[in-house]
Amino acid sequence: MVTTENIGLRGIVAATTHISMVDGEEGKLAYRGYDIEDLATNSTFEEVAYLLIHGSLPTADQLSAFSQDLVAHRRLPSAFIASLDMLPLNTPPMAILQSGVSLLAGYDPDIYDESMEANQRKAIRAIALMPTIIAAWKRLKNNQGPVEPDDSLPLAANFLYMIRGRRPAEEAARFMDVSMILHAEHTFNASTFTSRVVASTGADMYASLAAGIGALSGPLHGGANAQVMRNLLDTKDPELVESWVEDQFKRGKKVSGMGHAVYKTIDPRARILQSMARSVVKDHPEYRWYEMTERMALATQDLLMRRKGKHIYPNVDLYSASVYHAMGIHHEFFPAVFAMSRSAGWCAHILEEKFPSPPVRPALYRPESTYVGPSNRRYVPIGER
């Protein structure tokens, strides 16, 4: 029976997973049993990607080999770049990424090998190449030539280098790395569940990833941080933030970056990004965007409490927006940056779907639905309609 509590599969357990745990009541998130704050403080994106895909933290030698594999697969084939150069410049970055990831299947020597080892190799190639696709399209869209990857840089820093054509400051590179860690995985969200559904049919790694990218492109999922930045740009002046929030409430609209479908307290990822964002932009000429972000959060919390007696808290999208903007990433590309970070989690879930731990067996997802349309309709020949 469909109820308001389970519509959209809310509260329905679709599968078990070893990959991550979200405690919405306590505001906790863990990857493979490791608290997100520990990982964000002490780890790197490469180390977290290894953890998600292989199930354990790597040794120094394992991490070195894994990182070298990622570096070795960063470069796009020249034919791929040429195909991007032929596309209309107004093509959305998420459309480029979704179609681009699908096309990677044609360049993968393991595409017809469905063993665990081959799928792990596909995962490494996809994680390595998604930042290159995004950076190449960003450059082409601005009538600039793509920048070749710098093999001496880790994945996050190299992405910023390919976007801007110059090495990022250490602080900016670290923020990008931590942001990618925080966005890497979040249990059965819409895009991850979509990837798992497609993988359950036996589809390959790239088809499953492309499906996840499609789900993430929606404004209710991956587009939230882009909307945060649009709201800041529309408001322009820190002194106008409170009146803007009031206007949103009057029109019955939500404030992007506030509230979450799972967390009943502050999103733990938002807490980490908040302190990092403050330190990254404190001396930046565009500090006002961060200042406006804080005022937007406080105004939203105050109004909701006064009008409805309810609490609302920032989510991960709120604090990434102003810093991505300060680093020279246009908000049109924010969902794609989210996707390249989430690629590690998607790959881990696709692998878990294809190779579940016993006693669980692979199963094609096939939920039921309740039909509520008309019945007993008489067919009328076309000439009589």
By DSSP (H or I, 4+ residues per run), the number of helices equals 16
Residue share in helices? 55-70%
Total strands: the figure is 3
* Structure class: mainly alpha
* Cα-to-Cα separation, first versus last residue: 36 Å
Strands side by side in the biggest sheet = 1-2-3
CATH superfamily of the largest domain: Citrate Synthase, domain 1
Largest sheet: 3 strands, antiparallel
Please explain how this structure is put together.
The protein has 2 domains: 220 residues, Citrate Synthase, domain 1 (Orthogonal Bundle), CATH 1.10.580.10; 101 residues, Cytochrome P450-Terp, domain 2 (Cytochrome p450-Terp, domain 2, Orthogonal Bundle). 55% of the residues lie in helices and 3% in strands. It has 16 helices and 3 strands. It is globular.
Question: Keywords for this structure?
Answer:
three-stranded antiparallel sheet; mainly alpha; Citrate Synthase, domain 1; 2 domains; Cytochrome p450-Terp, domain 2
Question: What order do the helices and strands come in, and which of them pair?
Answer:
Elements: E1 20-23, E2 28-31, E3 34-35, H1 36-42, H2 45-54, H3 60-72, H4 78-85, H5 93-104, H6 116-141, H7 155-164, H8 170-183, H9 190-200, H10 205-216, H11 224-235, H12 241-250, H13 268-281, H14 287-308, H15 316-326, H16 334-354
Antiparallel strand pairs: 1-2, 2-3
Helix pairs in contact: 1-8, 2-16, 3-6, 5-6, 5-10, 6-7, 6-16, 7-8, 8-13, 8-16, 9-10, 9-16, 10-16, 11-15, 12-14, 13-15, 14-15
